[in-house]
């Protein structure tokens, strides 16, 4: 499929309670690569196989959660057009100047009806992945430190009004619905999985009464064996695990959910099928959501529905 608009998830800024403790966790346990710090005290990371300067940003706060989630778009003309489209749809946008985030160009930010801050941007400094561009090897030294995910893959956000959120992503940003879970009434959508590519999802939302909540940011692993290795590393470092290792029915992905030291949930994820925009969305009924979440146990874990940051 031709990718000409929104390309992929680009970055997340997450709030943590103790910055030094969080930096140690994300660098040494999760195995992200630290790429910079700014005069606001934020710390920047990337996954080892990502080419751009940063994808995961930590900010110290008295409350855990997410500040914003950003998507990279094709170019500056696309950024301008998407801002116009958002404004025409009735959504107010704000321009943030180049350099407000390290090595990142101008960003267009807007607030979803779910209370989440979303950003679009076109430029971020390319720093490479530690592998030569000519005659490259399959991995580099950073790929073996800690859990060492390949990339920031997606996020799941909890908040109200996801029917309106869905319209914005489909009608304005060019995403398409891949899967959904119906509510207990059998008609409304309790959760939706959306893609701007041929990944099984790039962002997901679940209906929740409180606005602006983070369920998890997900990091891609190369194989099921690497997910299991991530579980070993979590146990070695006494990381609190929420769910897994297991397979989802929704997306068919294999997963472990766990919490960082501040209580932000993260996911180590692999697999899933490759959808295209002409595929019919898959539907799960609410009474079978347990199998959608944890296919082997067919269990709707209570924490999945209630614990957010």
TrEMBL record:
* Cofactor dependence: Fe(2+)
Q: Catalytic activity annotated for this protein?
A: catechol + O2 = (2Z,4E)-2-hydroxy-6-oxohexa-2,4-dienoate + H(+)
Q: Which EC number applies? A: 1.13.11.2
Q: Where is the VOC domain?
A: 8-123, 151-271
- Name a GO molecular-function annotation: ferrous iron binding
Q: Which UniProt keywords apply?
A: Aromatic hydrocarbons catabolism, Dioxygenase, Iron, Metal-binding, Oxidoreductase, Repeat
Q: Cite the Pfam families for this sequence.
A: Diox-like_N (PF22247), Glyoxalase (PF00903)
Q: How does it assemble?
A: Homotetramer.
Q: Which family does it belong to?
A: Belongs to the extradiol ring-cleavage dioxygenase family.
Q: Can you name this protein? A: Metapyrocatechase
Could you tell me which species this protein originates from? Marinobacter pelagius
């Amino acid at each position: 499929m031709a990718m000409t608009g929104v390309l992929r998830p680009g970055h997340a800024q997450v709030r943590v309670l103790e910055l030094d403790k969080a930096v140690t966790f994300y660098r040494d346990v999760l195995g992200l690569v630290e790429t910079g710090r700014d005069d606001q005290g934020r710390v920047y990371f990337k996954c080892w196989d990502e080419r751009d300067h940063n994808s995961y940003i930590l900010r110290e706060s008295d409350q855990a959660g997410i500040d914003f989630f950003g998507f990279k778009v094709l170019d500056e003309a696309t950024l301008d057009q998407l801002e116009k489209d958002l404004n025409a749809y009735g959504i107010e946008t704000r321009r943030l100047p180049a350099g407000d985030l390290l090595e990142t160009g101008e960003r267009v930010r807007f607030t979803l009806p779910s209370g989440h801050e979303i950003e679009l941007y076109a430029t971020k400094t390319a720093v490479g992945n530690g592998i030569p561009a000519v005659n490259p090897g399959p991995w580099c030294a950073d790929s073996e430190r800690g859990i060492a995910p390949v990339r920031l893959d997606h996020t799941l956000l909890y908040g109200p009004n996801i029917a309106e959120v869905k319209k914005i992503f489909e009608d304005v940003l060019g995403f398409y619905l891949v899967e959904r879970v119906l509510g207990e009434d059998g008609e409304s959508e309790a959760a939706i999985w959306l893609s701007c590519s041929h990944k099984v999802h790039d962002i997901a939302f679940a209906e929740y009464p409180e606005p602006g909540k983070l369920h998890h940011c997900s990091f891609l692993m190369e194989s099921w064996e690497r997910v299991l290795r991530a579980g070993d590393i979590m146990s070695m470092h006494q990381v609190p695990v929420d769910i897994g290792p297991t397979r989802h029915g929704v997306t068919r992905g294999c997963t472990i959910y766990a919490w960082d030291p501040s209580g932000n949930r993260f996911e180590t994820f692999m697999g899933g099928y490759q959808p295209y925009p002409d595929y019919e969305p898959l539907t799960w009924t609410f009474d079978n959501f347990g199998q959608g979440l944890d296919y082997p146990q067919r269990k709707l874990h209570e924490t999945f529905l209630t614990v957010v940051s």
